[in-house]
Amino acid sequence: MARPRKLHDEYFKRAKADGYLARSAYKLIEINDRKGLIRPGDRVLDLGCAPGSWVQVAADLVGPRGAVVGIDLLGCSPLLAESVGGNVRCLVGDVFTVDPSDLLRAGPGGAAGFDVVLSDMAPNTSGHGDDLLSARLCRRVLEVLPALLRPGGHLAMKIFEGAEYPALVEQARGLFREARGFKPKASREVSRETYILGTSYRPPDDAREAAPRRPGIAPSPPTPPAGWGA
User: Fold this and answer.
1) Active-site residues: which are they?
2) Closest Cα partner for 228 from 90, 104, 47?
3) How far apart are CA 114 and CA 42, in angstroms?
4) Which of 49, 117, 174, 186 has most Cβ atoms within 10 angstroms of its Cβ?
């Protein structure tokens, strides 16, 4: 019987050795090495943060003068508290129904907004319509940005490449000075995941108006299941 693929995964082994909760930590490390999105003292919001590996990386990058707020349907792993300082707060909630003002209040700076918004959210994959579910998550991220991200802030957002990918990149280009796709080396070669990276956010005229709650989401495509973080 073949051994599980992850036992042979270089990044999985490195994550275990380095104390990260998931191999996805190295995706954010590579993204930040390439684009310098997160800096010391920044306020960072991680949407779909479970189990918490991106929170770990972000907390290290912002240092004690910065802050990281994470939200996920499952919250963060109990092990996270052992590896981060007091500048991290994890919330249990649904990005489709959360009031953005609650996320702002969870971090320092309040209405000033976050310096960086991260999203490593992904639906549970079935092989059918995964890209549509991923695109739906991304549309929600872009919908709440005006209420959450300060002018000049940055975005890193996972998406599965598919029919809606080009349109979402173009939408991001309308909101940032620069926006483009990037696939980290830590992503598996066979994976359709890539990341939309946006730098220097340029909010629309109504940017400081809170994004609407969406408690009554239509079931087509269905709401992505629990455990968005990868």
Assistant:
1) 158
2) 47
3) 8
4) 49
Q: Which sequence spans correspond to the domains of the chain? A: 5-201
CATH tag, 5-201: 3.40.50.150
Mean per-residue pLDDT, 212-219 = 38
Give the full edge-to-edge strand order of the sheet including 88-92. Answer: 88-92, 67-72, 43-47, 114-119, 149-160, 193-201, 176-182
Model pTM score: 0.84
